[in-house]
Amino acid sequence: MCKMQxxxxxxxxxxLGAFLMLLISLVGALVPxxxxxxxxxxxxxxxxxxxxxxxxxxxxxxxxxxxxxxLNRNLGATLSMLGLFxxxxxxxxxxxxxxxxxxxxxxxxxHKTNALVLELGVSMHSILLGLGIGITSDDxxxxxxxxxxxxxxxxxxxxxxxVMECRSRVKTLMTILFYSTSTPLGILLGVLIRxxxxxxxxxxxLQAVLETVCAGMLLFxxxxxxxxxxxxxxxxxxxDLASLWTGALLMTLVGNWV
Length: 258
Hints:
Blueprint: H1 11-35, H2 40-64, H3 75-98, H4 107-134, H5 141-163, H6 169-196, H7 203-233, H8 237-257
Helix pairs in contact: 1-5, 1-6, 2-3, 2-5, 2-7, 2-8, 3-4, 3-7, 4-5, 4-6, 4-7, 5-6, 5-8
């Protein structure tokens, strides 16, 4: 039987953290717009690849394998595979829908479709991340908050560096605003659940289920729709490869810190 580990919990610190998360996420997402560095897209792609494995699949699978919950040990991998198939299905449907507006081989149409799938995956992950922070006890909160502030900064760079290639400045800023508010909203939801519900112990299971599905979606999109297409069309192979690996390495180090 699971025992609730109920440490000291101070809601106003978590609410303050939500506003700080909003600021850092916004700053990170604005970096590609004002720097316009050509290698930021692959740096961001590396960040998301590392996020999928280090920050999503592994932690979520460990939760689902906890003997406390008595779940199938392969559930995490199965749900990630499901997420990958969902992303493929969404991608196919969106591309067919766009055929009525132009050729499916049009790079702009493909980029718009890819950006939408990426935006959905990243935003879902950000909400779930915020939910986890929101229900965290005070003793773990400072370390998690510091690590995830860095996480959201780099992930903001990753998202906007892809989106800005295929959307107008206004639509890009709207995407950034949506991304920047997703984690704070998750934190506030987590605070509400922690304060009002006595069954919040099982929230990590729901969070882990959604996180593994989201991980599969992001993995498909970033590998097939972003990295593969980028290296097929660009000539700066070595610099792009270095940026990709650097982004993955930095985000992995952040994951080891959590």
